[in-house]
Description:
With about 250 residues, the chain is α/β, with parallel strands linked by helices. It has one domain: Rossmann fold (3-Layer(aba) Sandwich), CATH 3.40.50. The chain has 9 helices and 10 strands. The chain has helices spanning about 45-50, 75-80, 95-105, 110-125, 140-155, 170-185, 195-200, 220-225, 235-240; strands at about 5-10, 20-30, 30-40, 60-65, 65-70, 80-85, 155-160, 190, 205-210, 215-220. Strand 9 (about 205-210) and strand 10 (about 215-220) form a beta hairpin. Helix 3 (about 95-105) runs parallel beside helix 5. The radius of gyration is 18 Å and the shape is globular. The chain starts with a strand and ends in a 5-residue tail after the last helix. This is Multidrug ABC transporter ATP-binding protein.
Amino acid sequence: MKRILEVNGLSGGYVPEKPVIHDLNFHVASGEIVGLIGLNGAGKSTTIKHVLGLMEPMKGTAAIAGKTFREEPDEYRGCLSYIPETPVLYDELTLWEHLELTAMAYGLEEKTFLQRVRPLLEEFHMENKIKWFPSEFSKGMKQKVMILCALLVEPDLYVVDEPFVGLDPIGIQSFLDYMVRFRNNGAGILMSTHILSTAEKYCDRFLIMHNGHMVLKGTLKQLQEETGLADAGLDDIYLLAARGGKL
């Protein structure tokens, strides 16, 4: 499979000479969902910020479709969509205006925009709320707005950080159905989540972080072989890594 995201030797953090992630090497290929797993403080959010181009690496690179943020920032950002854990919305814009702004930022033609937006609104039960402002939304609805904007774009890479927070069960399933659909159509998806049962069911491979290091990576079968836990689920493997078990 073609590699969409490639991270090589990446170290970084918030204070010069004090990295919080260390020498990370991983990739996300076309047509796969990769789960980014770890305790709070393991380095997942810092890793995601580097992938998004929001932080400058101390060492190493992150490239999407062969492009780095430093060399081609506009093209780099145009290759990805991001769904954050905490929704970030404009108070003065309606739901519809958020969607229009997203379409404009990514250069979507009006015909394409309209073809994509209607099914999304219906799937997430937001078609009657297009004139609502963020102040009128519940937490789950705000998360749905972020999801709608990200799914509208249909990029090469989705970066998803704890997407299920605040969503109702139907919203969670709708989101997962779209992720599977886009994966099957060739997109790559990097998804950080603490819901290990969902990760095990939907992710093709896993990246397990601990104290800023990538301690395990691979398919569930590969993780079982590496840890010697032949019949273990992702939760048992994760707990071994998180508790400092021998790997």
